[in-house]
């Protein structure tokens, strides 16, 4: 139990650090923060944007920095991330609420699928290492090095433009009204296939390589040799003695990699004009919508931290030593 | 005539350790390919911009020069505004690689300092530094990079390097700290402590030399991360859009609808180059890994023994069996002729 | 007692074992009395299906194939293990003793390669003698553990960290014996009884057990399928002395009641003097001396064995100066000609380079099968007057 509590505390600290960084960055610009941000806008600014940024920076709030900070933290707790300057007067939280589900469903599902398939392939590759499966290793390394969005470009070119199998863009067909009816849902699924495929293909090599390496190390452990000495059937040795132990570092690696996968997937959304948080982020960048950018950063960070916490829970569930090790501290 | 014992000529005739083949030969193929490929890119980075056929930013105003497919005049075609893709690519390789290496050096230096300090000071310092490291590891880098760069007035190379380095050290720091802790507890370090050697000398002369391959691997990883992150940032547009890095090329290609207009020659080369550079670095790392870790090396080279590939979990091979084993159909049939020698040892029997 | 009741005595293990010494199955073995020794066992009883030693290692050579050359870890070695016998394998680390044992069972991983020899197994359950080195993988799998079990050196590493004790015992039971679930469960429980561990520990994970308990669990696992031979690889080295004694006593007791043979690998010769029936001393991949433990204790023949005996104090007897064996084992990639022990041997002489390491009988010994690899030194050869110098250069004064 104390293991989980420790991890929770850690993630809370990390979230707090992210919050604080978020708070201080705009205030670290020398000079009048609002002015310098305004100066970035190429055209003359609408007063609405001005007001949004003012609100974000807390200019006009009386009180010290500390005062502002506390107000800011309280706001965050109420999911008030401020007002968007590019889509004034829309609230950042509203915009997030519209786009977050799209991203979570797409990225979440695709990542889990890629992880599972990659891990299984990695187990096979590790058990039979040195053999024919190893010849594809450099190819896998190449695959792993391809940026997600580039992959997306290629796949889009192939399947959507040339072969016309998949739609080119968007999350669902134009003209459809979002809602819980089959037309919409089926269209949404259809439109998400290519992005999902991109994520799966782009990340699977990484999982497979990682699992293969962990398997190779695990197979060298004494208890696997002992398992063979015991004449246990191969399948049992591979699954219960080797893989079940190898999965632990693999899960830890998953936790660490979640941040990268999410980042990659977000950028990929641009290529597909997929209506998720990634597209929102890029649009925010283009229009210098700072409140929105900062809100997105926080939400993404919180989501990644949450994912890490879940992975930690899974690890504790699977590994008897983790529970014991932390309990005895 | 006295007979001197012949043995005294060389009584300790223990043979010298057979000379290990040099480091290059010992490196597995993957590593060698990585080294060669990386060298190619470094070379391209150095020479590239000097041999560009055209000025990469020269915009050809005539519409017929826009979006041309590869031809004799333009090896990789032209962009929307008539610029030569090849030239841009060559300049881009240098810019991107340069940025990656500088970030690698800075971030690795920070990582070594943080890692070694945390491991050596221990106690409170270690807890604090470790916490810091882990927090920055877990916070997703890209969104933070976007915000940091987003607020900076100038998004050129220097700020990008700064920002990437600030977020690029945690990975290496963690690994180096772990390794330093392990080495620090080893006997030879304790011995030098006993003799009163100063801490910095211990670090410089005993610890670091033992971590060279780890630091090298960490450096390569950081370069990998820097290249990937800078390309991603540029693709979104959070970069100096007037410079010709590989990421910027992709940005312009995407924003000018290269895909929809079918101008594959604009976005495929830079992306491919990024992927190849990444592959080269990963292969290089594999080479360093296996060089530094003999167990990995032995395992991979040993999987072929006496001409046969073995799974690691196969029973120990027997030489006579291997040479005798017949292949193909004959062997398949032959294997049935040897009847089971453990009759009566079926599960459940013999009790 | 007929062979039938021998089989039936194995049917209800719980009963016969609770009885401890009630069933002395050693009496059912037709031992290779002509070949091996198993001192003191009565030879009454019907013949087992096969006669001859349980394990017959002939001319075995194992190398490790490295990029820098072949390391000859085991070099043309012969060893025989009789039924119900305890044979000790003694030597320094790197001498090849573990390689020999694991290589004989084909458990070594790459880059190991068996280059020569045969390993003939004759157990009660086997219809005819079988060469382990030429077995098919499926037969090998059935041979493993069922016939030859291993107790590994470090139980912490040899037990699966994510399975509890009961599951690991059940794994072994189900892999080789066909029995209904509840019977398997009760067998697992009674195995723990056998080694003196409370049954509540069935649900424990390896990291929850103490070192001694883990080792006992390993032993229980080894006994699970009632094997013919148990190889023990330094089973007590990682434990403290008191626990060591306990476990060794337990091992002896179990051996007496269940009648398996033991191949005991250790660097601790003093242990073997008490425990083993016969001792085989190994150096640089070859045997240098084989004899009964009594004989080794009384009158060791080979200089290396003598050196080992001098390395530890005995509780009784006159006090004497301890001497180690200075120097280190040779590089096994390019072994020098002749006897590998020359650089560290106090009796070395020029002829040693021509020795072919064949094991020759020691005429003066009380053990008719006492053999040694040194043709020059006998048990009664006087010790060299000056201990060898630590630098490793040793020219004995006897040499001319």
- What structural category arises from helix and sheet content of chain B? mainly alpha
In terms of per-residue confidence, which ranges of chain B show pLDDT below 50 for 5 or more consecutive residues? 1-19, 326-331, 337-351
Helix fraction of chain A by DSSP (H/I, runs of at least 4) = over 70%
Order of helices and strands of chain A: HHHHHHHHHHHHH
- For the residues shown, what is the average pLDDT of chain B? 75
Explain how this protein is built.
- The complex is a heterotrimer of chains A (329), B (351) and C (400).
- Chain A is mainly alpha-helical and 329 residues long.
- Chain A has 13 helices and no strands.
- In chain A, helix 6 crosses helix 8, helix 9 crosses helix 10 and helix 11 packs antiparallel against helix 12.
- The longest helix of chain A has 39 residues.
- With 351 residues, chain B is mainly alpha-helical.
- A two-stranded antiparallel sheet of chain B has the order 1-2.
- In chain B, helix 3 packs parallel to helix 6.
- Chain B is globular.
- The N terminus and C terminus of chain B are likely disordered.
- Chain C is an alpha/beta fold and 400 residues long.
- In chain C, helix 7 crosses helix 8, helix 8 runs parallel beside helix 9 and helix 10 crosses helix 11.
- The N terminus and C terminus of chain C are likely disordered.
- At the A-B interface, helix 1, helix 6, helix 7, helix 10 and helix 11 of A face helix 4, helix 5, helix 10, helix 12 and helix 13 of B.
Could you list some keywords that capture this structure?
heterotrimer, A: 329 residues, mainly alpha, B: 351 residues, two-stranded antiparallel ribbon, 15 helices, 64% helix, disordered C terminus
Layout: helices, strands, pairs:
The complex is a heterotrimer of chains A (329), B (351) and C (400).
Chain A: H1 2-27, H2 33-39, H3 47-57, H4 65-77, H5 92-127, H6 137-145, H7 148-162, H8 182-219, H9 222-229, H10 234-272, H11 277-286, H12 290-318, H13 320-327
Chain B: H1 23-26, H2 29-47, H3 85-121, H4 123-138, H5 141-151, H6 157-168, H7 170-184, H8 187-194, H9 199-210, H10 212-236, H11 246-255, H12 264-292, H13 294-302, E1 304-305, E2 308-309, H14 319-324, H15 328-337
Chain C: H1 3-9, H2 13-18, E1 55-66, E2 69-81, E3 86-90, H3 97-104, E4 112-121, E5 130-131, H4 137-143, E6 148-151, H5 155-158, H6 165-176, H7 181-195, H8 211-223, E7 229-233, H9 241-258, E8 261-266, H10 269-275, E9 278-283, E10 286-292, H11 293-299, H12 303-309, E11 360-361, E12 371-372
Parallel strand pairs in C: 3-8, 3-9, 6-7, 7-8
Antiparallel strand pairs in C: 1-2, 1-4, 4-5, 9-10, 10-12, 11-12
């Amino acid at each position: 139990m104390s293991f989980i509590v420790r991890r929770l505390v850690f993630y809370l600290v990390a979230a707090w650090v992210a919050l604080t960084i978020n708070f201080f960055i705009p205030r670290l610009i020398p000079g009048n923060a609002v002015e310098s941000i305004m100066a970035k806008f190429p055209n003359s600014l609408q007063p609405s944007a001005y007001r949004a940024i003012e609100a974000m920076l807390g200019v006009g709030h009386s009180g010290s920095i500390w005062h502002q900070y506390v107000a800011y933290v309280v706001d965050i707790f109420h999911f008030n991330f401020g007002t968007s300057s590019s889509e004034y007067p829309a609230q950042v939280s509203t915009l997030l609420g519209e786009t977050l589900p799209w991203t979570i469903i797409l990225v979440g599902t695709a990542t889990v699928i890629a992880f599972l398939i990659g891990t299984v392939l990695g187990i096979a590759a590790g058990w039979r290492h040195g053999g024919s499966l190893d010849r594809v290793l450099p190819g896998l390394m190449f695959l792993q090095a391809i940026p997600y969005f580039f992959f997306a470009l290629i796949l889009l070119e192939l399947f959507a433009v040339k072969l016309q199998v998949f739609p080119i863009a968007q999350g669902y067909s134009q003209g459809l009204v979002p809602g819980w009816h089959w037309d919409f849902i089926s269209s949404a699924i259809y439109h998400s296939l290519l992005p999902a495929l991109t994520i799966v293909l782009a990340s699977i090599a990484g999982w497979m390589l990682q699992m293969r390496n962990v398997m190779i190390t695990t197979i060298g452990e004494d208890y696997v040799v002992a398992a063979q000495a015991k004449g246990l059937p191969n399948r049992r040795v591979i699954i219960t003695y080797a893989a079940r132990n190898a999965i632990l570092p693999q899960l830890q690696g998953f936790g660490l990699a979640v941040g990268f996968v999410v980042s990659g997937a977000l950028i990929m959304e641009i290529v597909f004009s997929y209506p998720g948080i990634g597209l929102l982020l890029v649009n925010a960048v283009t229009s210098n919508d700072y409140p929105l950018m900062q809100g997105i950063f926080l939400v993404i960070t919180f989501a990644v931290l949450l994912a890490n916490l879940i992975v930690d829970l899974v690890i504790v569930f699977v590994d008897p030593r983790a529970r014991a090790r932390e309990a005895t501290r | 005539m006295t007979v001197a014992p012949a043995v005294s000529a060389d009584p300790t005739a223990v043979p010298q350790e057979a000379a290990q083949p040099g480091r290059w030969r010992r490196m597995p193929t993957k590593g060698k390919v990585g080294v060669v490929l990386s060298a190619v890119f470094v070379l391209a980075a150095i020479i590239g911009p000097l041999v560009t056929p055209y000025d990469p930013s020269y915009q050809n105003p005539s519409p017929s020069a826009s979006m041309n497919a590869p031809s004799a005049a333009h090896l990789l075609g032209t962009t929307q505004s008539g610029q030569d893709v090849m030239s841009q690519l060559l300049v881009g390789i240098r810019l991107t690689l340069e940025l990656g290496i500088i970030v690698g050096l800075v971030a690795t230096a920070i990582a070594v300092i943080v890692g070694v300090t945390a491991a050596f000071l221990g106690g409170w310092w270690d807890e604090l530094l470790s916490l810091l490291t882990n927090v920055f590891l877990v916070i997703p880098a890209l969104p933070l990079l976007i915000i940091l760069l987003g607020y900076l007035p100038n998004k050129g190379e220097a700020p990008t390097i700064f920002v990437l380095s600030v977020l690029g050290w945690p990975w290496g720091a963690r690994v180096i700290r772990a390794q330093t802790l392990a080495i620090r507890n080893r006997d030879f370090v304790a011995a030098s402590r006993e003799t009163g050697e100063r801490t910095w000398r211990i670090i410089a002369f005993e610890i670091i030399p033992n971590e060279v391959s780890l630091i090298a691997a960490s450096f390569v990883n950081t370069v990998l991360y820097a290249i990937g992150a800078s390309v991603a940032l540029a693709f979104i547009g959070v970069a100096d859009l007037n410079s010709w890095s590989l990421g910027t090329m992709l940005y312009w290609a995407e924003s000018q609808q290269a895909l929809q207009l079918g101008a594959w020659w604009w976005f495929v080369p830079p992306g491919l180059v990024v992927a190849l550079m990444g592959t080269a670095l990963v292969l290089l790392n594999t080479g360093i890994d296996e060089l530094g870790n003999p167990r990995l090396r032995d395992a991979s080279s040993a999987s072929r023994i006496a001409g046969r590939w073995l799974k690691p979990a196969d029973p120990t091979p027997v030489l006579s069996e291997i040479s005798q084993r017949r292949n193909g159909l004959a062997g398949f049939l032959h294997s049935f002729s040897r009847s089971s020698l453990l009759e009566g040892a079926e599960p459940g029997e013999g009790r | 007692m007929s062979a039938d009741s021998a089989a039936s005595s194995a049917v209800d293990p719980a009963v016969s074992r609770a009885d401890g010494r009630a069933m002395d199955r050693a009496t059912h073995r037709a031992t290779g009395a002509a070949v091996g020794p198993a001192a003191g066992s009565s030879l009454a009883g019907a013949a087992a299906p096969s006669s001859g030693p349980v394990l017959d290692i002939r001319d075995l050579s194992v190398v490790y194939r490295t990029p820098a050359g072949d390391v000859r870890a085991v070099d043309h070695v012969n060893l025989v293990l009789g039924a119900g016998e305890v044979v000790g394998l003694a030597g320094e680390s790197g001498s090849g003793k573990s390689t020999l044992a694991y290589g004989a069972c084909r458990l070594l991983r790459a880059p190991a390669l068996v280059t020569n020899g045969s390993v003939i197994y004759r157990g009660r359950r086997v219809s005819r003698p079988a060469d382990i080195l030429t077995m098919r993988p499926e037969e090998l799998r059935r041979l493993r553990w069922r016939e030859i079990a291993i107790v590994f050196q470090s139980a912490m590493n040899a037990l699966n960290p994510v399975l509890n004790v009961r599951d690991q015992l059940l794994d072994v039971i189900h892999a080789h014996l066909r029995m209904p679930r509840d019977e398997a469960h009760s067998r697992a429980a009674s195995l723990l009884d056998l080694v003196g561990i409370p049954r509540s520990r069935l649900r424990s994970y390896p990291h929850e057990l103490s070192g001694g308990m883990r080792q006992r669990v390993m032993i229980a696992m080894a006994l699970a399928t009632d094997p013919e031979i148990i190889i023990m690889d330094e089973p007590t080295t990682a434990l403290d002395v008191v626990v060591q004694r306990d476990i060794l006593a337990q091992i002896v007791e179990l051996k007496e009641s269940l009648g398996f043979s033991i191949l005991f690998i250790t660097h601790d010769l003093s242990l073997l003097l008490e425990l083993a029936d016969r001792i085989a001393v190994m150096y640089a991949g070859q045997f240098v001396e084989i004899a009964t433990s009594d004989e080794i204790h009384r009158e060791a023949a080979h200089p290396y064995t003598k050196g080992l005996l001098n390395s530890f104090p005995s509780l009784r007897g006159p006090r004497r100066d301890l001497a180690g064996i200075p120097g280190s084992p040779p590089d096994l990639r390019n072994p020098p000609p002749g006897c590998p022990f020359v650089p560290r041997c106090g009796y070395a002489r020029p002829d040693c380079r021509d020795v072919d390491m064949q094991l020759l009988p020691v005429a003066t010994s009380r053990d008719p099968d006492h053999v040694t690899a040194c043709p020059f030194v006998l048990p009664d050869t006087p010790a060299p007057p000056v201990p060898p110098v630590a630098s490793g250069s040793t020219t004995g004064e006897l040499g001319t």
